[in-house]
Design brief:
There is one protein chain. With about 575 residues, this protein is α/β, with parallel strands linked by helices. About 40% of the residues lie in helices and about 15% in strands. It is built from 23 helices and 19 strands. Strand 6, helix 7 and strand 7 (about 155-165) form a beta-alpha-beta unit. Helix 3 runs parallel beside helix 5 (about 85-95) and helix 14 packs parallel to helix 21. The longest helix is centred in the middle third of the chain and has 21 residues, at about 335-355.
């Protein structure tokens, strides 16, 4: 090692030590020293030039969700910095590690109300777990190293603001990085006494249910085995889709609005819920969890125990370890009527979805589009899902296995997530098939970054569900009994726009064109945009079912079934009666 090193290059070497391979952003005068360091270290860290900093920040967040490793993005002072917020808040609310490098005017221009100068630390205070302005060139690599360690420790966003002149200075070449010596903390072991208390509670319950969150990732076999051994139906959070196969008989799907019918019905009838690795806000805010229900909660974070509901048995433990111990300490339950009723209810729901997916009418049915996606999807495909009706439809119609991955903006729920997430997916896993599934509202917010897909020549399959409406919001306006306003969209030919950007654009306006379009996309060598003009119909509202004669009139049920083409769909109560559930 020489006696001196450029501070910006030293910063890059810290990122390299932490295994960073991609950095997303747009250059600017206040971050040009960082750009120059990226150029010098370009054979080790790839700079990805996005067309909007928001997309870069969303890509960094998606990288962290998909890999568990830190995502890195940057923006210059002023507008470049403020454009990062959407992606950073997505990372904060979904609890993943992201590092944001923020440009600042040079130290000689600071505090002079200079061009694009802003006091950036207070701006990022709420979104970050670590937020520092670098004060000296010598401290730059240290601050970056500290920021990454804190992002990992807190599963959150670290922000480092860098006055531009500091990155150009020579500093002593005695800095160090701690990435190579980073060790993931050991997850807590379950207390066997609490495990036994949980098993006793389950044994006394008539309608026990597992509610599984992203904390069960990596524990597919244990979750299936626990469900099968104790005959517990499993309700999943939306971001947990694919962790257990969709065709597993006891997988009830997700809950609340972006949900399946069986998911909501199962929770509504449960007398015991075992929540594993989930921080689900709707249980409290939307009263999905009845107060009389017994609760077992398993989480690695003690601060999450009892956060959303009362807890009868708290288990501070890694989900995989806790489920393994629950299996080891338990006897197999040969049959449980509630489990059988839930499985039958799910079969009925799947038949309903298949009925919709098999429709060949025009305009094109949403389910028919997903039938084609399922047909061409590889066994390890990655699905980047945008926000809106497409989220709900993806949760219902995608048939996933644990080798595939599903990512969306969950708690922040920002439209425009799909393109950035697809970029990160394909750059991180170049040999895997990647889909971006998006509505026309979300796609039109960020479609400029199809140019990034073209520049990087990434064979991403972008599927745009076009219905000229913010339908998810339109449905909310309907539920609130207000006149539709502000939800109609100006349509466009997104396939032609894609062609104009150098991608392969395919327009689909009839069912007869669907299969050929997806065959073409599956064989494409570069980015594809399939613009499907779909029938504008509301997905069945799983949070507001009108199927049960005990709660709704015959007229209401008939109209509900007519509107949602659900003549053969039965309420859970039918199966509770069939299996004589107490």
């Amino acid at each position: 090692m020489g006696d001196k090193i450029n501070a910006g290059i030293a910063m890059m070497k810290v990122l390299e030590d932490w295994g960073v391979k991609h950095v997303y952003g747009i250059p600017g005068g206040s971050i040009n020293s960082t750009m120059d360091a990226l150029r010098v270290e370009g054979d080790k860290i790839a700079y990805v030039q996005v067309r909007h900093e928001e997309v870069g920040a969303l890509a960094a967040a998606a990288h962290a969700k998909l890999t568990g490793k830190i995502g890195v993005c940057f923006g210059s002072a002023g507008p470049g910095a403020t454009h990062l917020f959407n992606g950073l808040y997505d990372a904060q609310m979904d609890h993943v590690p992201v590092l944001a490098l923020v440009g600042q005017v040079g130290t000689a221009d600071m505090n002079w109300d200079s061009f694009q100068e802003m006091n950036e630390n207070p701006m990022f205070a709420d979104v970050s777990v670590y937020n520092r302005t670098v004060m000296t060139a010598e401290s730059l690599p240290h601050v970056i190293d500290e920021a990454i360690r804190r992002a990992y420790k807190e599963n959150g966003v670290a922000v480092v603001t860098i006055p531009n002149d500091l990155g150009r200075q020579e500093i002593p070449n005695d800095f160090w990085a701690s990435g190579h010596s980073f060790v993931q903390p050991l997850f807590p072991e379950p207390d066997k006494a609490y495990i036994q208390q949980a098993l006793d509670l389950i044994a006394s319950a008539k309608r026990p249910v597992i509610f599984a969150g992203i904390g069960v990732k990596g524990a597919t076999e244990e979750l299936i085995a626990l469900s099968d051994r104790l005959k517990l139906p499993v309700v999943m959070t939306s971001i947990s889709k694919g962790i257990i196969p969709d065709d597993f008989e006891a997988n009830m799907g997700s809950a609340y609005r972006v949900a399946t019918k069986p998911g909501n019905e199962t929770l509504a009838k449960a007398d015991l819920i075992m929540m594993i690795g989930s921080d689900f806000p709707f249980g409290r805010t939307k009263n999905l969890f009845r107060p009389e229900v017994k609760f077992i909660q398993i989480d690695i974070d003690a601060a999450k125990l009892g956060k959303r509901h009362h807890v009868d048995v708290p288990i501070l433990s890694d989900a995989k370890k806790a489920m393994t111990q629950l299996i080891a300490q338990s006897e197999e339950v040969p049959a449980r009527p509630f489990y059988q009723a839930c499985v039958a209810n799910m079969r009925n729901w799947r038949a309903y979805l298949h009925q919709l997916a098999d429709k060949t009418t025009d305009p094109v049915e949403v389910g028919a589009v997903f039938k084609q996606i399922n047909r061409i999807a590889t066994d390890d495909a990655i699905f980047a899902i945008d926000v809106g009706d497409v989220t709900m439809n993806s949760l219902r119609f995608l048939n996933m296995n644990p080798q595939q991955q599903f990512t969306t903006s969950a708690l922040f729920a920002t439209m425009g997530y799909g393109i950035g997430a697809a970029l990160a997916s394909k750059l991180t896993y170049p040999h895997r098939q990647v889909f971006n599934l998006t509505g026309d509202g979300a796609f039109s917010m960020v479609m400029q970054d199809v140019l990034t897909q073209v520049k990087e020549w990434l064979p991403i399959i972008n599927v745009v569900f076009s219905n000229n409406s913010f339908d998810f919001i339109k449905d909310e306006q309907e539920d609130e009994k207000q006149t539709f306003f502000g939800v109609a969209l100006q349509g466009a030919d997104y396939a032609k726009i894609a062609n104009g950007m150098g991608a392969q654009g395919i327009s689909v306006s009839s069912h007869a064109e669907l299969a050929a379009a997806f065959d073409e996309a599956a064989n494409a060598q570069g980015p594809v945009v399939i613009d499907v003009k779909i029938r504008p119909n509301r997905p069945l509202p799983a949070e507001n079912l009108q199927l049960d004669p005990a709660t709704h009139s015959a007229e209401e049920i008939a109209e509900f079934k007519r509107r949602y083409e659900a003549e053969a769909l039965e309420p859970l109560s039918v199966y509770l009666n069939e299996f004589e559930v107490e």
